[in-house]
Amino acid sequence: MPSTAHHSTHPAEPTASASSQAPSTPAGRPRGAPRALRGLLPFARPYRGRIALALLFLVLAAASTLLLPVALKSLIDQGLVAADPGERLMALRGHFAALFAVGAALGAFSAARFYMVSWLGERITADVRDAVYAHVVRQSPEFFETTQTGEVLSRLTTDTTLVQTVVGSSLSLGLRNTVMGLGALVMLVVTNPYVMGQVLGILVLVVLPSLYFGRRVRRLSRASQDRVADSSAIAAEVLSEIPVVQGYVQEAREAERFHRSTESAFETARRRTRVRSLLVAFVITATFGALLWGLYQGTQAVLRGDVSAGHLGQTVFFVMILVGSVAVLSEVWGDLLRAAGATERLMELLAARSPVQDPPVPQALPPVHGGSAVRFEHVTFHYPSRPTQPALLGFELDVRPGETVALVGPSGAGKSTVLQLLLRFYDAQQGAVLVDGIPVRATALAALRGRIGLVPQDSTVFSSSARENIRYGRPDASDAEVEAAAHAAYAHDFIAALPQGYDTFLGERGVRLSGGQRQRISIARAMLKNPPLLLLDEATSALDAESERMVQAALESAMSGRTTIVIAHRLATVLRADRIVVLDQGRIVDVGRHEELVGRGGLYARLAAMQFDTTGGAG
Fold first, then answer.
1. Distance CA 309, CA 77 (A)
2. Dist CA 532 CA 371 (whole Å)
3. Mean pLDDT, the chain cut into blocks of 10 residues (619 residues total)
4. Contact 166/33 with Cβ under 8 angstroms?
5. Is residue 12 part of a domain?
């Protein structure tokens, strides 16, 4: 069951142009790599105090590292050159004590830095994951017509893990080595500008090729993440339909399809790793050459008597820190490139804008006593994925409060579209849909949908207990109210027979229940909500004859005193409807009661002939 996530300091969602789906950024289009990481700034801003503290510890740890060469110089020049053995012993003790103090400070500051940065990485990543998920679940169904669920899951898991690695580790490592490298650079300039000039020349030669390799790494990183998302999409689709896969003996075929996808992801990752390996090899070789050159120049200066042995040790240590920092930064750069691609993909999801939005100033729905009134005025609607094929064309329907209207017609006639527009999952391109006299576009989505109860054809059962599944209709309902709804939906007996009764875990998608039991859970959920407008989409389609009789009685009780729109081919619901609306190709072709429609012939009579006998009984 969905639960309330941590929302204490979520930043405002980034603004973007209205779009119904996540925009796709071509993997081959280069941008400034770390620039994409700016998308994380709104998530980091609430933790400015902790970031400042982490930076303070980072600077103190880097400063402690930079003190080590200074302490080493003092040890060599002052602790080893004193003439008197007693003075030498005392000097050595003092210098080693100083070295230990520096090391202890380095350990304490590094531990504090590690904790603060790791906390920030975990917290910011959790906030990003929460924000992306909360944003995605508010998208209209149009978004999911073009975006695979597995793709979204990949971004929520794989991409956020990459971001966590960078924010919680690599970025800190990069900043620490940047501070140490710059500190070592300053000290080298101050203590030995000649050696520094040569080392800088070598480092320029290191940086320029690194930028070229970096762009290639970033392009391949984005492509690699896309291929992993493809694998996730395949797995999510297949695992959600495993009975069909096994029923058609397609396990080997699906395993092979997944294998091809993972091999594609591996090949892309291999190319990325090869380029990163070349980058690391080049940087380490070049920096090691810089170290040896600096050491050679220093030894020559000692032999000439230009500098002391301690000065040489200090210079070598600073050169090691500098080139070591550059080597680490080359690897961190690769991580930043990967995280930049992951951040882009996450920001694309956050930038997606559902075309179905609350109006700037929502109109309140009037209070109702009993059922709601529903009106469709000259509605024409095309699904975004089928822009040339109208699902409804000039559709007009007026449903009075408390009336039960059945929608019938062949597959694709537009029956389910009527319910989709009433729930405002989509907006009609022409015409208006009104509930209780208010256009659905003019009222808040939560207020509109709070007035509607839905029992879908494919009943949904979450991975939770029977009690929590029914309570999904009204989260603040008491246990007694939940059980009363179950009784009304004829679900109490089979729930009570479960191992833990109402607290029994029903499994993913309710796999521990039969189709009819899942449907009765769904009906109980809608009845607990007790809405003035009830939408039934083939609500008894999954029931056997005995269960259907029980649920029909429950549905009749649920429909009493409220407006009900039913999509049904089953006899009982159609016969009891106040009106039957016959649809074909998005238009209303006939309206009336069962006997009238059969007597007039036409489409309804042909449909009824397959299900009803001439006396109105079951066929």
1. 7
2. 4
3. 41 38 39 64 86 85 75 61 56 69 80 83 84 82 73 76 74 77 78 69 67 64 66 69 67 79 78 74 71 71 70 72 73 73 79 84 88 92 86 92 89 89 91 93 90 82 83 87 86 86 78 76 86 82 63 67 81 76 90 86 81 46
4. no
5. no
Last residue of a domain, one of 298, 316, 351: 351
Where residue 5 falls (left for φ over 0; alpha for ψ -120 to 50; beta otherwise) is beta
What are the beta bridge partners of residue 564?
404, 534
* Rounded CA separation 48/41 (Å): 10
Whether residue 8 lies inside any domain: the answer is no
Same domain, 198 and 186: yes
For residue 375, the domain's CATH number is 3.40.50.300
- Helix intervals (H) in 375-439: 415-422
Q: Do residues 456 and 501 touch, judged by C-beta distance below 8 A?
A: no
CA-wise closest residue to 261 among 221, 229, 296: 229
Helices 479-488 and 515-529 pack at an angle, to 10 degrees, of: 120
pLDDT of residue 207: 66
Close Cβ partners of 473 (under 8 Å, ≥ 6 residues apart): 453, 485, 524, 525, 526, 527, 528, 529
Task: Give the pLDDT confidence score for residue 72 in this predicted structure.
Answer: 66
Residues 294 and 313 in one domain: yes
Q: How far is CA 181 from the centre of its chain?
A: 37
Total count of residues recorded for the chain: 619
pLDDT at position 456, please? 81
Rounded to an integer, what distance in angstroms lies between the CA atom of residue 562 and that of residue 533?
6
pLDDT at position 614, please?
41
Q: What is the b/e burial string over 312-342, where b = at least 16 CB atoms within 10 angstroms of the residue's CB?
A: bbbbbbbbbbbbbbbbbbbbbbbbbbbbbbb
Would residue 552 count as lying in a domain? no
Looking at the structure, do residues 333 and 390 belong to the same domain, yes or no? no
Residue numbers of the domain that contains 469: 459-530
Find, among 110, 121, 217, 98, the residue nearest to 169 by Cα.
121
- With CA atoms as reference, report the closest residue to 408 among 162, 176, 605, 117: 605
> Which pLDDT score, from 0 to 100, does residue 3 have?
40
- Are 235 and 317 in a shared domain? yes
88 burial level (CB within 10 Å; 0-12, 13-18, 19+): middle
- Please, how many CA atoms are within 13 Å of residue 600, restricted to the half-sphere of its CB? 13
Quick one: 469 and 446 in the same domain? Answer: no
Distance CA 244, CA 253 (A): 13
- Dump the DSSP string for 227-241: HHHHHHHHHHHHHHT
For position 509, what pLDDT does the model report? 66
The total number of structural domains in the chain stands at 3
Burial of residue 482, with CB atoms counted within 10 A of its CB: 0-12 exposed, 13-18 middle, 19 or more buried: buried
Q: For residue 279, give the CATH number of its domain.
A: 1.20.1560.10
> Is residue 187 included in any domain, yes or no?
yes
Would you state the pLDDT for residue 8? 41
User: Are 172 and 214 in a shared domain?
Assistant: yes
CA–CA dist 345, 161 (Å, integer)? 13
- 416 and 473 within one domain: no
Prediction pTM value: 0.68
For residues 13 and 350, the answer to whether their CB atoms sit within 8 Å is yes
Do both 401 and 475 map to the same domain? no
Tokens 């951040």 correspond to 343
273-326 confidence digits (pLDDT tens): 777 777 777 776 776 676 677 667 767 776 777 766 667 777 777 777 777 777
